[in-house]
Amino acid sequence: MRTGRRQRDVAAPPVAFPAILRRTNLGSRSAGTPGGALREAEFAMTHGLVMNVPAPITFYDALHGEVARRSTAGVDGLLLHVGRATDDGFQVLEIWESKEKCDRFFAEVVGPAIASVSGGQTPPGEPVIAEFEPRGLIIPSAAIAV
Description:
This protein is α+β, with helices and mostly antiparallel strands. The chain has a domain at 46-137: Alpha-Beta Plaits. It contains two helices and eight strands; from the N terminus they run E-E-E-H-E-E-H-E-E-E. Strand 4 (78-86) and strand 5 (89-96) form a beta hairpin. The radius of gyration is 17 Å and the shape is globular.
């Protein structure tokens, strides 16, 4: 179950991704290939979440592997996923094109993967999830700026 509130203090332009993807130079900084331009993607909505999970990092490693096995064709709408160990378990940060794509992936892939990894038992700990509206994302190696 997700907790947290999404606040939207500035209206985003009515542009959908990937229908609109424009190339632009962001100042004199370039990324991707030398001399290349960053791509700026505008989203009608983006969705972020941070999950703090009180479970061993080995559970994350197993779950990450199972999710990867179940999503060999890619993950529709996922822009960024970072997992890391914490003092009391692990943390996951994700940025999605939309909440709907995130929710669909959790229902269709992550939920069944958790059931598989945990052997049908209750997972080691209940995650604390905070959702947020991302204000910016730059991935120079992928030549993407949001």
